[in-house]
């Protein structure tokens, strides 16, 4: 473990430097809208409080980091990074069936409650989601780095916007590239951010399209791109005749709660859980990057910091474009 922590400490400053340089040359809409010291005066303890909340929750439930990362993706890809996924109510993003399995809401709510005590009406729920996901990666063993803050919370949350804006596990490479490009993310970002599957859990229903189910509920592998032994393990964990929506398996069968580069090694071994994972290693446009990340965790971590920054600045709302919610679940 000592060598691992030594690596993190050596790369921490490098990651921060790279992100600062990237931000300096970012497209003009970002400049002047978000900043790395946004809460320096108004709430200097903001990031520490979010980090402590995430660390405490993760100590009680090692699945929390994966939940927080998935929550961030589902927020930023729909209406931008504006915490619209947190709003409760009929017809909201949160009510859509694609989001009913999301978790991590209680962690965001806990951080918000503490911040409202020390810095009332100051820190947005959108910033809390972004910071919590950033901290989740570091707590799970990944790189630690700075991200800018200053996001405002959106007032619009519509379930109809969910399905057209999130990746389905059955997507082809072309479908994923098209969606990522629409968010200002490149093919390199697609491969890098797919590394989120190095942690987290998935319901059996999320990869059921890779199997055929007979009248008695027994599964048979039909996707030849999946390793047969790994497929047999999945079949054992998803019982015949059982509810595939109630059983979960680890996204990464090797190091399920550690943020590392094992996901990419798994892809090369044909152990990507989702069809959308497998196509990344099979496509000539992306295989080289998969191989690079599988061989170098340092390269993956460097790219993760850069792509994560781009993810957390998708269509952000600032100033009077949004609000600072008193409760993350309801608009003011």
Automatic annotation (TrEMBL):
The record marks 70 as: Transition state stabilizer. It catalyses: 2 a phenolic donor + H2O2 = 2 a phenolic radical donor + 2 H2O. It is an enzyme of class 1 (oxidoreductase). Ca(2+) 2 binds at residues 198, 252, 255, 260. It comes from the Eukaryota. Its EC number is 1.11.1.7. GO terms for cellular component: extracellular region. The keyword Ligase does not apply. This is Peroxidase. It comes from Hibiscus syriacus.
